[in-house]
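Much of what follows relies on a compact textual record of a protein's fold. Think of the row as the fold of the chain written in a discrete alphabet. An example makes this concrete, so a full record is given next.


***
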Amino acid sequence: MLYDRRRFRVCGRASIFYPKEQGAMTRALEIWIGGYGAKNEAGITRAELIPATGELFKTSEYSGIDDASFLRMNKAGTRLYAVSETNDHIDADGDQAEGGQIASFPIDAETRKLGPGQFQPTHGAHPCHLTLTPTEDWLAVSNYSGSSVTMYVIAPDTRPGPPSIRFRHSGSGPNEQRQEAPHPHSVAFSPDGRYLFVPDLGMDKIMIYARDPESMWSAYDAVSLEPGAGPRHLAFHPSGQTVYSVNELDSTVTRFTHEDGKLTRQESLSTLPASYKEESYCAEILVSPDGRFVYASNRGHDSIAVFQVDESTAELRPAGHVSTRGKWPRNFALSPDGAWLIAANQNSDSVVLFRIEPQSGLPIYAGTEIAVSKPVCVLIR
């Protein structure tokens, strides 16, 4: 549904509303959605969620970036970072250059509108994921087809500088169609910011880089998964002592124990029901803010798999599957309080809202969805 904003009076910042029928202030959650699309199409959408009513509505759309397939925002909410997942691009001189780009957009504090974007090359094809260190002084991006990871120093004004470091991967896996070469699929910093973890789908490895006292980065370690697993994304448990990997090609979640940048592989569980025999590919994995549940998306089965986390061991127990009410859920996000889940269904052009049932952790359809063209990333602030 597209929310009718005439029912609200705007007070101060754009994210504060006073519902007339409730007579009380309700703070909206700010939602940013990235999607596949050409530069002249709406590639980034801003929306808002009113927690008190469960109403989700679009507020603005932005063009000017090709294939904005992953988004991140700084803690202050003043800058939005995005990948432009392309094979090549037009550089500042108007020439065609190889590889994709990252973009950063200033956000107006009052209107929450995006300002003009600043672009930097990634020196690798199809950048598909990016993230910031906890201290927000470095940004890393994974180049899926470029077999590389590129890192940028973040300036005091929050803009990324020119590419500073580039790590190249080499290797392959048993799946000849999908693992013919390295495919770094995401980047994740450890909670203390000392280590960078890079799941490489093509190599069946998680590559690990370490930061030295001089704030430079170098190769540190690597851990292997089952051949043909295809690790895609990682999620840290709030304790920092456990890491979960979602594996795209064999539809599993693998648990690792973590200590000082070293990962030790533990059990793997399927994200699919035992009765499901058709093709399906995992995409995103998240841990609930309280650490009690792990969620993973299935593209094909078109569902969110839910796992309970053992309080003492952090082992996973399957807790169920919930349809995303759309096709090909590439990405989803949890609200900071863990009360809401928003799923992006890429192939049905829909973004769907769910409430999280507190005891079971299961997402319950909230009756609200909005139309967004080819949505592939959801960010909740």
User: Anything to note?
Assistant: Residues 35-380 form a domain with the Methylamine Dehydrogenase; Chain H fold (CATH 2.130.10.10). The longest strand covers residues 160-168.
